[in-house]
Specification:
The chain is an all-alpha fold. The protein has 18 helices and no strands.
């Protein structure tokens, strides 16, 4: 029998080996990020569109026609979104030079204010002097890649959608074959698909509503580029925790340049109300326990996947992190104890509620004891 000390040493070695493997996997995914991101994006789209295909087949539509209909619908949605993105980028490229002098002047005033309060504002003043709208547009364009890069990404996405949709026809039967041998793994994969579908579809619909409301409100406030910032709000709705702050900065800047502080305050109020109503009230109630990740892990996953595979990693951070949890935790019986630590707090909240109720009852009992007269007081009264 191995001693407790030797077992602990082996456990530490396993932990270090696991961490080393995680680092190698992260570097490997980063090395193939240009193909990993579109392939995983196609997987998420396939998962989200799968119920439509099942519905068509149940209504008697031939399997091949149902598959083709789903692929066509998804591809049309991608084309509409791509067209909207190109229109927004074109508007941004035309809008930015118009406000370049105001941006430079505002940055110079900010540098002067920093100097007045004893902070060195020379870097800000230098950045204002070197501000070039064309360079900023080129930088943002580089985030999306060249035209050839976009075409290759679309080809990968469309090809993977076609192949995954055809393979998905065999998936229910394959899972049925696997269930007698790996029931927990099958349940984990099924739950993963259901949770990702619920999260992505609900986020997309609520993000669309959020973007339309922000677009309409910004247009009423006279903020330049209202359509651009509405589309940005929709995209950033997929980025947990930090997406709101990314989406609100540009309309605040251009609102300040156009209408001053009243417009800035109005933009903050509108975005705050819409964000609080959609992401803090409606989305948690609809999504429910589909994510079950702690706020800390959610925020870290956004940063981690953005570094690994670029900006699209921030958008797909939740599905990617849930996939890692499925592979390492949900499909292994010995690792299920980690789910509450990762954010599955249903049972934890029940335990805390019971504990709070017991403490509240104890406090009431102590207050009741203090309010009752003691033996000495009763003797004095008699």
């Amino acid at each position: 029998m191995p001693s407790e000390a030797s077992t602990r040493e082996h456990r530490n070695a396993f932990i270090l080996a696991g961490l080393g493997g995680a680092v190698l996997a992260a570097f490997g995914i980063a090395a193939i990020g240009s193909i990993f991101a579109p392939v995983f994006f196609a997987l998420v789209l396939t998962i989200c569109a799968h119920p439509l295909r099942v519905t068509l087949e149940r209504r008697g539509v031939p399997r091949g026609l149902a598959t083709g209909s789903v692929i066509t619908a998804v591809f049309l949605l991608l084309l509409v979104f791509g067209y909207a993105t190109l229109v927004a980028f074109g508007q941004f490229a035309a809008l930015l030079p118009q406000y370049a002098p105001q941006i430079q002047q505002a940055a110079a005033d900010f540098a002067a204010w920093l100097g007045a309060i004893g902070i060195n504002g020379d870097p800000v003043a230098q950045a204002a002097a070197d501000f070039d709208p064309a360079a900023l547009v080129d930088f943002i364009g580089s985030l999306f890649g060249s035209l050839a890069g976009l075409v290759s990404v679309l080809v990968i996405i469309f090809t993977m959608l076609l192949l995954m949709a055809m393979d998905a026809a065999f998936l229910p039967t394959l899972l049925g074959q696997m269930r007698p041998y790996r029931p927990l793994a099958v349940s984990a994969l099924s739950n993963y698909a259901s949770n990702v579908r619920r999260y992505m579809v609900v986020t997309a619909l609520l993000g669309l509503a959020q973007g339309l409301i922000n677009w309409f409100a910004l247009a009423l406030l006279g903020v330049p580029g209202a359509f651009i910032w509405g589309l940005l709000s929709f995209i950033c709705s997929f980025i947990p925790n930090v997406g709101y702050f990314i989406a609100i900065i540009p309309p605040i800047v251009f609102g300040a340049l156009e209408g001053g502080w009243p417009t800035v305050i109005a933009v903050i109020v509108v975005y705050g109300i819409v964000n609080a109503g959609v992401q803090s009230v409606v989305q948690p109630r609809v999504v429910g326990n589909a994510v079950s990740l702690s706020q800390t892990i959610t925020f870290f996953s956004v940063l981690f996947w953005a570094i690994i595979i670029g900006p699209v990693g921030a958008i797909l951070a939740i599905p990617l992190t849930l996939l890692v949890r499925v592979l390492l935790v949900d499909s292994h019986p010995s690792m299920l104890w980690m789910r509450p630590i990762l954010g599955d707090l249903g049972e934890t909240k029940e335990i805390m509620a019971e504990s709070d109720a017991e403490l509240k009852a104890a406090r009431k009992a102590r207050r009741a004891d203090r309010s009752q007269p003691g033996p000495a007081a009763e003797a004095e009264n008699t």
